[in-house]
Write a structure and sequence with these properties.
With 153 residues, the chain is mainly alpha-helical.
């Protein structure tokens, strides 16, 4: 049981890191493309890029994650992975037993991982349903720290 909990924690931490890093990279790519097209005065894009960088830095340095990002990990990050696995499963025909079984197992594994990570986030205190997001705030953003400590001034 402890091993399963540790595996879920590792999976959740990897998903958080992957989601925040991927979102920052996507924002940077869009910002670079806008600058290359001659839209150098793309202030909202630069502000969004700075926000994404702060979110990733807050997670990596302090373990702070907003409730909104916790919800996005469950809905966006795992939502895309589940949708891709579902498409892969639909492409396979049951007559191709081995390939169909692999696609079905991949779909089941990803949906189980999504559920486990969601439950872990809830267990750690993140409000993924965004019902009661009134805990520690960093720069006015509702969320809290992984280790449970509050920010020191």
């Amino acid at each position: 049981m402890a091993s399963e909990t540790q595996d879920t924690r590792s999976t959740a931490l990897a998903a958080i890191e992957d989601f925040l890093t991927g979102r920052l990279e996507n924002t940077q790519n869009l910002s670079r493309a806008a600058r290359a097209d001659g839209r150098a005065a793309d202030v909202p894009g630069q502000e969004l890029e700075a926000l994404r960088a702060r979110e990733l830095a807050a997670w990596q340095e302090e373990g702070f994650l907003s409730h909104l990002n916790a919800a996005a990990i469950v809905e966006e990050y795992y939502g895309r992975r589940v949708a891709q696995a579902r498409r892969d499963l639909r492409r396979e025909r049951p007559a191709r037993k081995e390939r169909y079984a692999r696609a079905r197992d991949a779909y089941r594994r990803i949906t189980a991982e999504r559920q486990a990570v969601h439950l872990w986030l809830l267990d750690q205190g993140w409000d993924t349903n965004l019902n009661n997001a009134v805990t520690e705030e960093a720069d006015g953003v509702a969320g809290h720290y992984l280790n449970g400590e509050y920010r020191r001034p």
